[in-house]
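Forum > Structural Biology > Help requests

Title: Can anyone predict the 3D structure of DNA 3'-5' helicase?

Hi all, first post here. I have the sequence for DNA 3'-5' helicase but no way to get a structure on my laptop. I'd be grateful if someone could post the structure tokens.
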Amino acid sequence: MNTNYIDELNESQCAAVTYNDGPSLVIAGAGSGKTRVLTYKIAYLLEQENGYNPWNILALTFTNKAAREMKERIARQVGMERARYLWMGTFHSIFSRILRAEATFIGFTSQFTIYDTADSKSLLTAIIDQVLREKVHEELLRKYGNRPDLEEKEKEKVIELKKIYKPGVVQARISNAKNHLVTPTGYAANKEAYEGDMAAKMPAIRDIYARYWDRCRQAGAMDFDDLLVYTYILFRDFPEVLARYRDQFRYVLVDEYQDTNYAQHSIVLQLTKENQRVCVVGDDAQSIYSFRGADIDNILYFTKIYPNTKVFKLEQNYRSTQTIVCAANSLIEKNERQIRKAVFSEKEKGEPIGVFQAYSDVEEGDIVANKIAELRREYRYGYADFAILYRTNAQSRIFEEALRKRSIPYKIYGGLSFYQRKEIKDVIAYFRLVVNPNDEEAFKRIINYPARGIGDTTVGKIISAATDHGVSLWATLCEPLSYGLDINKGTHAKLQGFRELIESFIVDQADKNAYEIGTNIIRQSGIINDVCQDTSPENLSRKENIEELVNGMNDFCALRQEEGNPNVSLTDFLSEIALLTDQDSDKADDGEKITLMTVHSAKGLEFKNVFVVGLEENLFPSGMVGDSPRALEEERRLFYVAITRAEEHCYLSFSKTRFRYGKMEFGSPSRFLRDIDVHYLQLPHEAGVSRAVDEGAGRFRREIEGGFTRSASPSRAPFGSTSSEQRERPKAQIIAPSVPRNLKKVSTVSPSSGAQATSSTSPSVAGVQAGQMIEHERFGLGEVIKVEGTGDNAKATIHFKNAGDKQLLLRFARFKVVE
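Reply #1:
Sure, ran it for you. Structure tokens for DNA 3'-5' helicase below:
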């Protein structure tokens, strides 16, 4: 034996690695050395006397990176010569290898093409158009007969149907069917699928799926889902092939088993049901991808499928402090459907998890940015030691702007910064064209978005005519005949409709501020209808991003007004955006930057300092959860994943108010906050976020604290286990935030000179004096430094703890005095 497993592994890891008497399930808690166990397990199988040959071991992962790293580690233990012959890779890469070798069995050649998502969507787009045209033609021909205007009616009907049959939506439904091993024939016979399609007003899905399946076969192509489906079919329909691979793969290992879908689970079962030599590793507490087809039941019921399974629990966390581990344990134990484990840490106790209460989402951004600066000063952390985790991509805007204000470098992990996202750039292009109709790039971007039947050929003609006459595209659009634009009557009507739409916005902007004209454009252009056509995750994210843009515009206009600029134009807003996006173009190395990402993207990563933000009801947990216990438990698992990314410090934040859907909303703290044992938390004013100078802030803290369940003082027991008495104790309710009773409206203004001011525009702008504490709607608590001016020109200079100094016009004041 080349490796000393006893010295190099802890007791649980060693037991999992050296067990080889049947199926095994390794439940690997966060930070417990899962990858180490997998690599040592494979090395152990190779190193034993009469051990396995490398080509007899199949190891399946979810990412190429994971497979590559494991193979490199194994090579260091057993040598590259042996490691290179391992069958190790992602499900898709391994199955494509098998399918190429056995392609003739399923009617393909070994040179079949693999379509990526874009290829698949492109083919589906063409098929959707074809199927809808055929069905509409049959329907209208049956209804009206072969009348002269039939073709025009068909075009109109197809355009309407395409708003429902979006390629991304159709692709998702077909992918879901394939992940459940449902072929077109099975789909057509499936009552549940039929009812779902009818409810979605997409009865033609079965025909589209069938044609897509046939077209892929004709093209000698498979998409990613086909690699699973055809592997299953190959093994199901050709027992001799299955027997051959069962003989070859004498031991099968699977990483991240909680993320497997039905198809992946079924293929693993095909390969291992007979010899029972299978080891799966995962953590049910980190099962967060049901929207991608992952089924937590695969890991929860593994021992029922393989009755002789030996279960190993890796419970020592090597990543996080004791406090972070205990807090995470107290959270996840509230889930009913789980494999219980007692995760513990032997690292230092660490600091309590800070809970930050912000008065608004804007102040939340300021609090986080300031705390990062404070931690860097105190601990000498680099920027790369920080991560800000949020539930939805739309939340990034607030934190991006807070970091930019302080010149703190950041990167959006696995995505684009807010103003670089496609849907945002589409809306901004409308704004740009309204402000400057000669903006050619904006013109080309939106002339057919949302789809209005103006194709590339027509756009090409406009560009050619404009180039030939040396005029702008807009000028050509306004006078198509003057510039020799060769188009038919129908196209002319569509171009005229687009021109009239933009002209109406141009007229509107004269007497509307940026927020008002912006919301009109988003609504009347059809953009909001376009993104609300379906509830796919992609479209929900687009919708949330557009709503956040509207929130930002509202905030921008209100703040400018408060600062004494009542007429905030669309041009002003675009100037602000241009400055932000210019900073986005910085191509500096991503290494030393703060990471912003969704919690889903953070899985598998770790940072010294983690901020989990936006912890409010209907945000985290998501408002999409509804009354589903399964969905709520997955949201709790998602929060667990967020907390367990932290090594040294973890902070949780929420705001009392948040701009949503263009208006200010009061929110309640997330129910998950009360799931965490309060002993591991540092509650709002203790965390040093706000100065507890007023009774209102104190009351709010007491309400939150009263909503947490207290348990016995921390000891060795809470490191993963909670008594039945603690588990059965009824949960107290967190009280929704309310405006403290001791806040009063501004009623009189006393300038620093001592002369009383009056206002002809607002009766409630009086009584503010230097030294008073105020609560601002967006910036939170602040102290009045001075008041100057009279009447409508009276303004106060206020120092906000988190937002710095602001000079605000009192007649537009959005704050209250704290007594």
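The longest helix spans residues 117-144. Residues 582-588, 686-700, 707-765 have pLDDT under 50 and may be disordered.
Shout if anything looks off.
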